[in-house]
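Forum: Protein Structure Q&A
Topic: Joint prediction for protein chains with partners

I've read a bunch of threads here and the consensus seems to be that you should model interacting components together rather than docking separate models afterwards. I'd like to see that in practice. Below is the full input, 378 residues plus whatever partners are listed. Could one of the regulars post the assembled result?
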Amino acid sequence: MNEWNSRKDEALAAIAAAGTADAVEALRVEALGKQGWVSQLLKTLGRMTPEERQEKAPAIQAVRAEIADAIAARKQALDDAELERRLATETLDLSLPAPETSRGSIHPVSQVMDELAEIFADLGFSVATGPEIEDDWHNFTALNMAETHPARAMHDTFYFPDKDAEGRSASSSEAVSRKERMLLRTHTSPVQIRSMVEQGAPIRIIAPGRVYRSDSDATHTPMFHQIEGLVVDRDIHLGHLKWTLETFLKAFFERDDIVLRLRPSYFPFTEPSVEVDVGFEVVDGRRVLGGSGDAPGHGWMELLGSGVVNRRVLEFAGLDPDEWQGFAFGVGVDRLAMLKYAMDDLRAFFDGDGRWLAHYGFSAFDQPTLSGGVGARA
Ligand code: DAH
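Posted by a regular:
Agreed with the consensus. Here's the joint model:
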């Protein structure tokens, strides 16, 4: 027997009787806290002779362990009891009717992104993502836009102030290497680079997301949405690109008479590059996609940019262009949504007006599925 055994028994009794988590915590502090009596006891070990310490240390440690175990057990018991109590008292009446008008809706941009993911998943594409705060190298250089490349000027880039490695603003004399210069990504194309670097080849991805440019009018907002597509494999050619785009657009617009026109174009990251137009017809003053744009009363509308991945881009991403080829495309998601759901002002997308959302938004139950028609409205 020793002088602290009765104190221990008292503490154990108090712990067993504690009715709340707070009471248990107070008892813990009293015994095991920095100033607690068990902690004080432990401190006395330091002042003992080695022989005395050898004799007393196990007993003191045992007291500490016993009290700690009792506290843990009591806390658990109180938690369990609380959970039992809540399970017994809280009920959910599943027979209650749903509210008459549903609150909230899925934004058309989200809905269209889900539709696109569904269509491309069926073609074997997975969804890839990348950061919206991107570095210069991924956004430009690795996409074959060297620092002096004129195409950079077309992007109206939002740059961050230069920072040195420690995050301090860098003066011009200690200019940060251009590679590390940070910006808001101006397109989803840097996700091509990140995906190839991370996953290698073969690869089949789409990358939907927000992009930013310093531009604002009826058809441009400083933030908008794009979806990028990338396929890298052996012997990939323009035919694969055309078939993929045709299949995708027919599924998306739910029309078999979608006709595409490929026009030669230029993007630094593709060679050859093609601009893809889609045929439309004017019905009641509105453009409706379908049919050849060359037919009387029809026209062509520019829809997306694409091409065969430039050899230099594959090299930047660490792939051997003699072994691997690819195609890529980039398209504005907001524009796809406007065309499909007949909305005419892009700015309304980002106003957060409840009336607009109630009108153009989708029900959360309206999950796009290929079997149900990706655009079916509930
Ligand atoms: N990144 C281009 C833009 O934002 C769009 C684009 C064009 C993406 C051609 C591509 C492509 O992948 O092959 O203007």
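The mean pLDDT is 90.
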